Amino acid sequence: MKIARLGPAGQEIPVIFAAVNGEEVAYDASSITADIDGAFLAGDGVARLRAALTAGALPVLPGAAGLRIGTPLARPNNVICIGMNYAAHAAESGAAPPEIPVVFLKPNNTVAGPFDHAPIPPGSRKYDWEVELGIVVGKEASYLDSQAEAMNAVAGYLVANDLSEREYQLPGAAGQWTKGKSLPKSTPLGPWLVPADEVDAGNLRLRSWVNGEERQDSNTADLIFDVATVVHHVSQYMLLEPGDVILTGTPEGVALSGRFPYLQDGDVVDLEIEGLGRQRQTYVRTPSRERPSGPAPHPHRSSH
Questions:
Q1: Inter-residue contact 80 to 111 (CB < 8 Å)
Q2: Is the dihedral of CA 286, 172, 110, 276 positive or negative?
């Protein structure tokens, strides 16, 4: 079962994709839930959708193939990221593999659909791709006692692209991870949310391509910190809520390595994780805003 949201941005409807006689069929799930969000997940929504699908209670959605695919989850509460979680990527970044998970946040307004056009920031010179396994949290979790508890808090998984502007992120006194990771539409998610019990998250091939040329090819078996470790660790430092998304890190093969050019206007990026689907973005540089010619006006000075 693949959970998706189809329709124009801001008007998506919940949809289930399921195989019937070898063909994938889209079912309208709006009779079960108005949206795929934290409240849906906390209310045992995945089980309710599965039961409705098994009972034949969901109508086929006509024209599904012609609809935009949005994020499979309405805007998350939090987007939590794990940095340098593949040893080879840490090495190409010039860093030693971390001994404990590196955790940072992305604003939730960076989330975008998996096939939406992707803007390159107007001043960007080092915009970089990162294919990542995304964990979707299904229940509140805090100070978890065990990795088994951590896995019980996972609702499912999805494909993510953690786009990063390296010049904003890393070098010099001005470099900050928040600056490099917060740009508009820099977190494409989807196309689907696949329930956790249908995924072997510890053995998934993940790949990326730029203009059809392979960049990344790895497996989640190579994660330094696996899903259970990540969820357990993060729960010690923040309250995880239903609908939160945790990005687990990217493997080697990004532009930061120096082996490939950074993204340019017109580039097409494909990302794929085995069993979780494929996403594609076409990158378009955001034009700079014109500044008025002539000297800048003096600020108004009050006579008081």
A1: no
A2: positive
CA distance 235 to 244: 12
**Residue with tokens 């999805």, as numbered in its chain:** 158
Radius of gyration (C-alpha) of the chain in whole angstroms: 20
Buried b (16+ CB within 10 A) or exposed e, 173-193: eeeebeebbbbebbbbbbbbb
Residue 167: in which H helix or E strand, if any?
Answer: helix 166-169
Name the strands in the sheet holding 13-20, side by side, starting at the edge strand that comes first in the sequence: 2-6, 13-20, 23-28
Neighbours of 286 (CB within 10 A): 15
DSSP state of 203: S
Of 111, 115, 118, nearest to 134 by C-alpha is 111
pLDDT tens readout for residues 94-145: 778 889 999 999 999 999 999 999 999 998 999 999 999 999 999 999 999 9
10: left (phi over 0), alpha (psi -120 to 50) or beta: left
